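Students often ask what a 'structure token' actually looks like in practice. Rather than answer in the abstract, let us consider TsaA-like domain-containing protein, a protein of 218 residues. Its sequence is given first.
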Amino acid sequence: MEFEPLKIVPLGYVRKDEELHETFIEILPEFRGAIDGLREGDWIKLVLWFHESDTPARRRVLKVHPYGNPKNPLTGVFATRSPYRPNPIALYTVRVHRIDENRLYIDWIDAHDGTPVVDIKIFVERYDCPKEVPIEEREAHIREGRMIGEVNIIPRRSEHLDELEEVSPGEYDALILEIGPKTTTLTAKELKDLIEALKEVYDSLPVEIKDKLGELKC
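Now compare that with the structural description of the same chain:
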């Protein structure tokens, strides 16, 4: 069976400053705009291409001794983090400590200097640390999601309301609330309480600020 090659281009490279003990991602100029919106302190998923493991022989390796220790039983590479894989892709979760133009300073990783960066994605607990949550992904109304600062609000789809007559507001999970990478859910009652609390905060704002907010509506 022949496979059609996929085209992957590097968007940057891992850089190691051994003297300063710093690790950073150097984004190529043509991809500089893609990091807009990232903030210092953000957690990201870093996808690398282990180019030094990209040989025909290593791509054919399907089983390895985990951690390179021959005392460990041979295990399929998909059940390990071995760099020997049919496609030598590496995945890291790291924190952005500093952003300096096209450089993202991150935690130390064991990738070599010059390792190509394939992709960068923001870390989201709901996707990257899956756990049982009251609202299943298929019930989330993703298209109606709203981003306000670092808060992401995703409402639950409102289908099948005829089945909810026996469900109390304290039992019905109404929305997914993401703050940075953290995820929680709010019941309908909690949502009502939050709205009332936010209204109290808004009402307590200085008149001058509320007047200016009123001008923004025009």
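One point worth highlighting: The first helix runs from residue 56 to 59. Ask yourself how you might have guessed this from the sequence alone, and why that guess would often be unreliable.
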